[in-house]
Every structure is written in C-alpha cells, then in structure tokens.
C-alpha cells in the first residue's frame, strides 16, 4: 500500500496582493467634478457679453478713426442743437469732400463755411438749390430744429457732405488726445477680449478624484490533513 500526500498550493497572484491605495491603481476610474449648472450658465453669458463688447469696440474704432482716413473724410464734433433730433451736441459727423458740388441735392446734410474769413463751420440740411445761367450756383440750407432758413451759399463755401454720424462719440474725439485714447482703449479691450475668449483651458479647471479600488481578499485554501490511499 502506497501512501501519497497531496499538496494543494495557494496561488498568490497580483490580484490577491493588490494594494488598496487609490494612487497606485493607475487604471482606476475617476470621478469628474465640474462646475455647477448655474455657474456654467453665468460664465457662458459673460463670455457672450464680452464678445459683443469686443465686436462693438472694433466697429466703433473703425467707424470713428479708420474709416475717415480710408475714405479721405474728416470727423467733426457737433457743438449746437440746430440739427436736432437728427444730430445732437456731442455727436461725431464724418464729412467727405465733394469733388462736384453740383451733385448735391435737396435733403443732403452738408458742412459749409458761412464766413470765408472765419474758421467756423456749420452743418445743416439743403432745402433749396440756387440756379443760374450755367446751372447750380449755390444752395439754401436750414437746421432741422430752426424755423428760419440760412443765407444762400455759393459752391466754393461747401466743405463736404455728411456720410454718417456716431452719437456722443464727439465728446471723446473732440479732445486733443481723444482719437488716440479711443483707438488705444478699443485695441486694449479687443486684445483683452480675445485673451478671455480664445485662451485654451482658461477658466475650465476640473479636478478629478480617483475612486477607491475594489478590495481583494486573499482566502487561503486549507491543506488537507488526511491521506489518499491508492
């Protein structure tokens, strides 16, 4: 009779010796903690508002500073209320020289020099055309808020025709450093807006916390005490 003792080995693998430390489990799933919905909505609204301000400043700087230079026009500030409600004190009018004054028609708003010996300029609406033997020789103007027409002017007194107006911008551009200030401020805010809008990852911080790895218990296999008889 032969007695054979059988050993049953306990397998100790990586699963049995897995560490319970979350940091050592690189494959452990992580839980993302994002911003609350209200905070995300407020940030989205803020970014949209910043974009609108950037676009508005670009348009304003272009209309007040860039466009007049490109068009060969002159920005002037309205000083009186004779053209209200069309033009109010503080508005900025962009006036372009007219090569052929005879192309001006009734209803156009023009800038002219009433007194050749004075640098004072007036911006009023054309309400009549003075005709001579050779055609148009002058214009009759009147402010929209005035009840009396101006004295007739000749073609040489016309400085230009108003292309467009920017409300209240003349208060800033009328100062000595106004145009420079407006341009620098607009460019500065534009750069700031682009940084806020297009910087990758800005304001998108999200922290992650590793989830605890499942615990693995090692259960030893009991060694048999008896013998197997063959």
Chain-wise SSE layout:
Elements: E1 3-4, E2 30-33, H1 37-71, E3 73-77, E4 92-96, E5 109-112, E6 122-132, E7 135-142, E8 153-154, E9 158-166, H2 170-173, H3 178-198, E10 207-210, E11 228-229
Antiparallel strand pairs: 1-11, 2-10, 3-4, 4-9, 5-6, 5-9, 6-7, 7-8
Helix pairs in contact: 1-3
With helices defined by DSSP (H or I, 4 residues minimum), what is the helix count?
3
What is the share of helical residues? Answer: 25-40%
| The CATH homology group name of the domain at 52-197 | Umud Fragment, subunit A
Radius of gyration: 41 Å
Secondary structure category: alpha+beta
CATH topology of the domain at 52-197: Umud Fragment, subunit A
Mean pLDDT: 75
β-strand number = 11
Amino- and carboxy-terminal Cα gap: 7 Å
Quickly list its features.
Umud Fragment, subunit A, alpha+beta, two-stranded antiparallel ribbon, 26% helix, 230 residues
Q: Would you mind describing this structure in some detail?
A:
With 230 residues, this protein is α+β, with helices and mostly antiparallel strands. Helix content is 26%, strand content 24%. A hairpin with a 2-residue loop joins strand 6 (122-132) and strand 7. It has helices at 37-71, 170-173, 178-198, and strands spanning 3-4, 30-33, 73-77, 92-96, 109-112, 122-132, 135-142, 153-154, 158-166, 207-210, 228-229. The protein has a seven-stranded antiparallel β-sheet. It has a two-stranded antiparallel ribbon with strand order 1-11. Strands 2-10 form a two-stranded antiparallel ribbon. The chain has a domain at 52-197: Umud Fragment, subunit A, CATH 2.10.109.10. It is built from three helices and eleven strands. Helix 1 packs antiparallel against helix 3.
């Amino acid at each position: 009779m032969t007695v054979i003792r059988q050993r049953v080995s306990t397998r100790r693998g990586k699963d049995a010796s897995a560490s319970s430390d979350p940091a050592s489990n690189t494959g452990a799933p992580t839980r993302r903690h994002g911003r609350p919905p209200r905070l995300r909505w407020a940030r989205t609204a803020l970014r949209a508002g910043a974009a609108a301000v950037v676009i508005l400043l670009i348009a304003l700087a272009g209309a007040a500073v860039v466009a007049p230079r490109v068009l060969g026009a002159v920005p002037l500030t309205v000083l009186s209320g004779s053209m209200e409600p069309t033009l109010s004190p503080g508005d900025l009018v962009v006036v372009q020289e007219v090569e052929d004054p005879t192309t001006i028609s009734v209803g156009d708003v023009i800038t002219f020099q009433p007194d050749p010996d004075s640098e004072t300029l007036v911006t009023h609406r054309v309400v009549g055309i003075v005709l001579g033997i050779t055609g148009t020789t002058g214009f009759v103007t009147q402010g929209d808020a005035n009840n009396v027409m101006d004295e007739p002017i000749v073609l040489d007194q016309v400085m230009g025709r108003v292309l467009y107006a920017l409300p209240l911008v003349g208060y800033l551009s009328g100062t000595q450093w106004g145009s420079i200030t407006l341009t620098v401020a607009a460019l500065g805010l534009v750069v700031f807006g682009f940084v806020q809008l297009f910087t990758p990852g800005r304001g998108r911080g999200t922290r992650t916390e590793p989830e605890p790895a499942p615990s693995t218990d090692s259960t030893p296999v009991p060694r048999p005490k008896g013998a197997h008889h063959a």
